[in-house]
Specification:
Bound molecules: tryptophanyl-5'AMP
Radius of gyration: 22 Å
Order of helices and strands: EEEHEHHEHHHHEHEHHHHH
Strand order of the largest sheet: 3-4-5
Helix content: 40-55%
Strand content: 5-15%
Number of helices: 13
CATH topology of the largest domain: Rossmann fold
Number of strands: 7
Largest sheet: 3 strands, parallel
């Protein structure tokens, strides 16, 4: 199917954009919630995937001396997970300066009240004495990321839905003021793993909460992290029957264990035939087995940094070309001198 993209051009496949911060590791939360989905979508859509280093400098974990290394590690993790550079455009956000320029241009149509209302801004700013404007403006940069490529769809986890709603609002306002229909209103793609809970059993899995399992963790590290993980609080003794549906370990089995094992886990939990440690042991083994090929590929890629740089270089060159086309249209419609016909 051909989709109109403006200026009389047509696109064969719907375009997808998504981003991931290099501030944290690739853990089973963002891997299940986003990256696995990215890998599936690369077969059916035109995909742009971005390592968002400009976003990462707003976070508490930002260390200038580690940013470059973490960016490369994230690229390795994504490629090892199956992101195929022959099918997608994989690049680093700061390698395409148009992201920052479009963000500035979108500032003028973004309502301050909407930014202040964002849950993530409220949560993060609460912990700070002095709030940097970057934390507030973070969703405008996200909108710029997506709109720069006029992406129609955005695969994300639950925590980014509100930011995406704001991106749609920004697109609507810009279109209304400058050029009707120029930016598509990007729609979310949400998978089953929209909110993977961390090992503490109550918060979203995220590096900043220290409740993660990294996709490159060794089998021993996986076991050490799973062993103390929270389970159904009703199971104090091994003989106490449990309710698998309220246990995060059971939910993780659903992503890593074969269907018959998942059924067995539920039965053995309800009937108190297994203790929580037995259940975790099976999960640890299945998790380690699932992640082993990714660890292997990551080790190979880490040994060939030039290859990774080449992929990111090619990705940035393509992204710059696409971004340049959009930005030319934006400047033109906004009336800047020397940019129109
Ligand atoms: P980030 O880096 O926090 O997370 C990357 C993606 O992983 C999803 N995710 C999860 N999904 C399920 N369960 C979890 N525990 C979990 N943790 C993370 C996130 O929802 C996200 O889809 N601001 C964004 C990055 C970004 C972006 C964009 C995304 C920048 N520009 C444009 C989409 C479009 C972020 O910090 O994601």
């Amino acid at each position: 199917m051909l989709l109109p993209v403006g200026w009389g051009m047509f696109r064969a496949m719907a375009r997808i954009f998504s981003g991931i911060q290099p501030s944290g590791e690739l853990h089973i939360g963002n891997w299940l919630g986003a990256v696995q989905r990215w890998v599936e979508l690369q077969r059916t859509h035109e995909c742009l995937y971005c390592i968002v280093d400009l976003h990462a400098i707003t976070g508490a974990g930002y260390e200038p001396s580690r940013l470059a290394e973490r960016t490369r590690e994230m690229a390795v993790g994504l490629l090892a997970s199956g992101i195929d550079p022959d099918r997608v455009t994989l690049f680093v956000q700061s390698h395409v300066p148009a992201h920052s320029e479009l963000m500035w241009l979108l500032n003028v149509v973004t309502p301050l009240g909407e930014l202040e209302r964002m849950t993530q801004f409220k949560d993060k700013s609460q912990e700070l004495e002095s709030i940097p404007a970057g934390l507030l403006n973070y969703p405008i940069l996200m909108a710029a990321d997506i709109l720069l490529y006029r992406a129609e769809q955005v695969p994300v986890g639950d925590d980014q839905i509100q930011h995406l709603e704001l991106a749609r609002e920004i697109a609507r306002r810009w279109n209304a003021q400058f050029s009707d229909g120029f930016f598509p209103e990007p729609q979310p793609i949400i998978g089953e793993a929209r909110r993977i809970v961390g090992l503490d059993g109550d918060a979203k899995m995220s590096k900043s909460r220290g409740n993660t399992i990294g996709i490159l963790d060794s089998p021993e590290e996986i076991w050490q992290k799973l062993r103390p993980a929270r389970t159904d609080p009703a199971r104090v003794k091994r003989t106490d029957p449990g309710t698998p549906e309220i246990c995060n370990i059971y939910h993780l089995h659903r992503y890593f264990s074969p269907l018959d094992t998942v059924t067995l886990v539920a039965e053995n939990c309800r009937g108190a035939k297994w203790g929580c440690l037995d259940c975790k042991r099976v999960l640890a083994d299945n998790m380690a087995r699932t992640l082993a090929p990714i660890r292997e590929r990551a080790a190979e890629l880490a040994a060939t940094p030039r290859l990774v740089d080449e992929v990111l270089g090619d990705g940035a060159a393509r992204a710059r070309r696409l971004a340049g086309e959009t930005l030319a249209g934006v400047r033109d419609h906004m009336g800047f001198y020397g940019h129109g016909d």
